[in-house]
Amino acid sequence: MSGRKGVTILGSTGSIGCNTVDLVERRPDLYRVEALVANSRVDILAEQARKLKARLAVVADEGAYGALKAALTGTGIEVAAGPGAVVAAAERPAEWVMAAIVGAAGLAPTLAAVRRGAVVGLANKECLVCAGQLMMAEVEKHGATLLPVDSEHSAIFQVFEADQHDKIEKIILTASGGPFRTKSREFMADVTPEQAVAHPNWSMGAKISVDSASMFNKGLELIEAHHLFNMPEDRIDIVVHPQSVIHSLVAYVDGSVLAQLGSPDMRTPIAYALGWPNRIEAPAPKLDLAAIATLTFEAPDPVRFPSLRLAREALRAGGSAAAVLNAANEVAVAAFLGRRIGFLDIASIVERTVAGVAHCALTCIDDVMAQDAEARRFASTIIDGGR
Ligand code: NAD
Ligand code: MG
């Protein structure tokens, strides 16, 4: 047996996935790769699997099986396809799993990793938004470890004195404000997908880039923080910090406010989770405070960005409200990226779906998936002009 940490990367071809591959590849002395999972990008997936000598490569899209098989012939790397194979990949023995599939599609495989007690680097925030309570209960039950990869939550995790939980007054999530931070609603009404995904500080996948532009990303992160750190909604603040240098803060009762800083490069929080409990080197640019010179802060604008109110309302409502909000947002973002709706329609579709779908208590994952499906149907009908 090698002493190397076994690693599985769910969503290896995405933005977080490729950054994780980059870090793993640098340290073959520390890591060996069990499985790589992607939706359909066979070319990138096969190249990663060869490079990292993965034992298994999986595509969720069954139609891509033949191409993946052909690309990996003669390598000895196992190949599989389909949603069942994605979950099976997460069940394989790897001490550390990166959950970096986008959206609620990541819930089942992330849970599979949690249920075998793995250490899970969690980028896939939608998992916690739609099933936070159930997920945290499973983590507890199976002795798994969730390490936040989202930069804000990694920051909080690094300065969060868990044994002083009752001495924590609040946590403060920073938000870049996205590409439309200073733009009017009139401007936002006509923006294109290209404008929305052009984030000023971070390079990310399309869905989270649109979420950053609408600030739904911060709304989802509020719900994520609530579950990860067991903090009530009214003790989680959001402050806009356009430089994205302070990644988030924790305020204690004695007036101390602890923050984590770094350049806006996801390889730092990914490296923190990958190396944990040790620190490993990451190739992110070093922070040069004198060159940055100025850090600024402003309150978010609830009128131009209704997403923050919608997320707070869903969190307060409890039950399935956040799962419905998340599913409606996924459908609306896809429709916006497909040029079927305008940018401002995203929030109104989410609001109408949360109001229109009857909420319920979530007692198991099947309940989550049923509410997710119902919300997707409802939001799609609005988009198709049926409501
Ligand atoms: P992305 O779109 O670049 O990548 C998504 C990955 O998931 C791809 O590998 C894709 O093949 C895979 N995938 C999609 N659907 C799948 C399915 N049904 N089954 C299996 N694999 C599937 O997205 P990203 O920007 O890397 O974001 C991934 C997650 O990390 C999201 O939840 C996002 O909110 C979160 N996150 C991303 C960043 C960032 O900087 N990109 C920062 C914080 C959090
Ligand atoms: Mg974030």
From TrEMBL:
Domain DXP reductoisomerase C-terminal stretches: 261-377
SUPFAM superfamilies, per the entry: 1-deoxy-D-xylulose-5-phosphate reductoisomerase, C-terminal domain (SSF69055), Glyceraldehyde-3-phosphate dehydrogenase-like, C-terminal domain (SSF55347), NAD(P)-binding Rossmann-fold domains (SSF51735)
Binding site for NADPH: 13-16, 124, 126, 205
Residues annotated for 1-deoxy-D-xylulose 5-phosphate binding in this entry: 125, 151-152, 176, 199, 212, 217-218, 221
A Pfam family recorded for this sequence: DXP_reductoisom
GO biological process assignments: isopentenyl diphosphate biosynthetic process, methylerythritol 4-phosphate pathway involved in terpenoid biosynthetic process
Catalytic activity: 2-C-methyl-D-erythritol 4-phosphate + NADP(+) = 1-deoxy-D-xylulose 5-phosphate + NADPH + H(+)
This protein's record includes keyword Glycoprotein: no
Domain 1-deoxy-D-xylulose 5-phosphate reductoisomerase C-terminal: 146-229
Protein purpose: Catalyzes the NADPH-dependent rearrangement and reduction of 1-deoxy-D-xylulose-5-phosphate (DXP) to 2-C-methyl-D-erythritol 4-phosphate (MEP).
Name assigned to this protein: 1-deoxy-D-xylulose 5-phosphate reductoisomerase
Species assigned in the record: Paramagnetospirillum caucaseum
